[in-house]
Amino acid sequence: MGTAIAEHRPTGLRERKKARTREALVEAGMRLFGERGYQATTTEEIAASADVSQRTFFRYFGSKEELVLAAQEGMDELLYQAVRARPLQECALTAARNALRDQWELSDTAVMHAQGEALRLIDTNTDLLAAQLRYCHERQEQLAALLAERAGVDPATDPRPGLVAAVFFATVQNGHTAWCRSGRTDLKELVATMLDHLDQVGEAITTNW
Amino acid sequence: MGTAIAEHRPTGLRERKKARTREALVEAGMRLFGERGYQATTTEEIAASADVSQRTFFRYFGSKEELVLAAQEGMDELLYQAVRARPLQECALTAARNALRDQWELSDTAVMHAQGEALRLIDTNTDLLAAQLRYCHERQEQLAALLAERAGVDPATDPRPGLVAAVFFATVQNGHTAWCRSGRTDLKELVATMLDHLDQVGEAITTNW
DNA sequence: TGCCAAATGTCAGTGACTGACATACTCTCC
DNA sequence: GGAGAGTATGTCAGTCACTGACATTTGGCA
User: Which domains are delineated in chain A?
Assistant: First the structure.
């Protein structure tokens, strides 16, 4: 079991070593961020704690923020696959919503836990939030392209795929902050909040309450 | 005429000087960004071009990105006022949509032009995009609070105000990127795109197309 | 074993941003 | 109009994220 992606079985010693170094950096970083806070931890300290040079840190991660965002990496591809697997009679937002649920059920518990830690950390620092939002913006465009392809419309002229993707990620992000703000730590509740918001958003914007 | 806010008439010499320095920094920064690009322009160059020290630059703007975002500053308050002025029988998203239209009609052409320049610049650099998205996130929370107050619901328990605010800004942002990507420079088209997307978003997410 | 390519370390440098302190300027009160 | 208070600015030193260049080590492979 595991992430169902990562077809790159670490065949040689070199690749195994690389994977270990990367994991050591993530582990050291998340631990230090938890202990001293994101801002108060330097990249040199993380590198030293993982027994590599600072230069090596930046060969694995393009920025300090990227280390935190690495936890969500790979989840996207899983989501897109899940969207592709949804039946075509489901409308775009419903398909994305159900794909989110499906993908979460398939995920490894360790990956889920790391995801939760990362999300809680993001809520403590505005630089991280900015990086996360930019990252979501990229994923949003990929989802828009996928939804356009799924429905057989031209994404260059039809704004609807882009709109659904924008609403989807905005709602998910909304669930994220709501979950963090509620002080809960149970990941089931995070997913439940996101799915609940996705269920409500259509009525919330079309009716007068 | 004028921004309708900015009740701070520059009464003394000191305040007039401050306003002039700030404007000189914005003007120098936007000019240099346009000539050499955002990344290739240093804060020292901007400061020198405005005849102040780099330290003074950072007393006016907390970061390099903030100088670009300064153009949108004040537009928020205008938007909130416009929302408050919309009749209560309009549902939340419609009120926000019409408020956006109203606010744009009231704005100064110079302010609008600066806004357009800033938006086009943001589209050229991912650091700026990240800063802009974080800024939108703050504005989104304020709009959510306003919508909750307007409808008389509790924003702590009812997710709908937050959802509408999230959808509103996501859609506006979507219009922004669509406008930039189309290569257009006419601000009327920017507003038209945003309003058009706001009109379409409800049907786009609730129907199967 | 020996060659090639990839991974890493070291070093010097850039640029955003900050705190501390001294100086110059504006405002106000008399 | 001048003294004192408060504010804006310049200067300087320093931190930290991040990068390019080059030398060194290390794993893959003939």
Answer: 13-62 (1.10.10.60), 69-206 (1.10.357.10)
Distance from CA of A161 to the nearest CA of B (A): 8
- 3-state secondary structure at position A87: coil
Q: Which nucleotide is nearest to B22 (CA to C1')?
A: D8
Q: How close A39 gets to chain B, by Cα (Å)?
A: 16
What averages of pLDDT result for each successive group of 10 residues across chain A (209 residues)? Answer: 43 90 97 97 98 98 97 88 96 98 91 93 97 97 97 95 98 96 92 97 95
Residue B6's pLDDT band, with cuts at 50, 70 and 90, is very low
Size of interface A-B (CB pairs under 8 A): 120
Helix (H, G, I), strand (E, B) or coil at A97: helix
Question: Residues of A with CB below 8 A from B171's CB?
Answer: 163, 166-167
Sequence-ordered list of residues with C-beta below 8 angstroms from that of B66, at least 6 positions apart, any chain: B131
- For B10, B96, B110, the CA distances from B77, given in Å and listed in that order, are 20, 13, 18
Residues 6+ apart with CB under 8 A from A69: A118, A131, A132, A135
For an interface test with B, the pick among A164, A198, A205, A207 (most B C-beta atoms closer than 10 Å) comes out as A205
For the record, the structure tokens of B133 come out as 């998205």
Q: How far apart are CA A128 and CA A69, in angstroms?
A: 8
Strand D at less than 7 A from CB of B20:
no
